[in-house]
Amino acid sequence: MKIDGGLTIGRDLGDVAASAKHLEDAGYDGAMSIETGHDPFLPILLAAEATERIQLGTGIAVAFARNPMTTAATANDLQMFSKGRFLLGLGSQIKPHIEKRFSMPWSHPASRMREFVLAMRAIWDCWHNGSKLDFQGEFYRHTLMTPFFNPGPNPYGPPKVFLAAVGVKMTETCGEVCDGMLVHGFTTERYMREVTLPALDRGFAAGTRKREDFEISYPAFVVTGSDDEEMTRAATAVRAQIAFYGSTPAYKGVLDLHGWGDLQPELNALSKQGEWAKMGEMIDDDMLSTFAVVAEPDAVAPVLRERYGDIVDRLSFYTPYAQDPATWASIVTALKTQ
User: What's the confidence (pLDDT) of residue 212?
Assistant: First the structure.
């Protein structure tokens, strides 16, 4: 199992290089950049310059805020500069953000994402193998590539493409056209086994990929601390994050599987009122322990392995709270040596 960490991104990106070097020195296998307050690709460039071994990925970059050509070009450059260490992680985001924040079109997200990835692959094939660019889909058309705009073959080949998914259709798309899946943190072990894995299998059957050539990456919620005060603080932060995701209609299926579906509209209504603290209080201990590993530091690694060791290829820690870096270093060591 590979262990990925999150890049620390300061206000001016000044922390990225040191963060990447720290993760590499601490034995992590990957470092991931997210698209929140910063562009997701610029930190990868800084991290690549500061490291030699660690893989570098976006987890995620919002696909529908871009188009296949611009994304293919950026990914190709980062794959070249990192000497083949780049992982392109994409996600759809949700309709309000695409339409209201990015002012971009939204429709049939799974079908559009499938086309997006296939269009990039056609572009890369044109650059790497000299094929004629002639991609004509329902959502994207790329039929012009003159020599002036062709970067030529990349000695490291195209980057691997990972896709974030929760719903069945997007998960099937992921298995059909991608190299890996970024499982959403709002995914329980049961949902992964009963819904995600069968959907991936259907995707594999529709495409040409096999499970052994595919990586599943999972950001596991973890509640841990060295004393009761730290454990309580961690649990409060994780409850709030679970509640935030639970308020999203697109993720209701996860709650439905566990018999908690009625909670989703309640959380959604509270979110519209800005009642964030009250939302977190609605996540009881049973829900918390279902979505998160709740354990003292020395027990975190064994529980993670028991839950996910046979189904996950890459693991990261979803911890929306401050914690001693030495704690995570010891957990990483335990995961890689057990």
Answer: 94
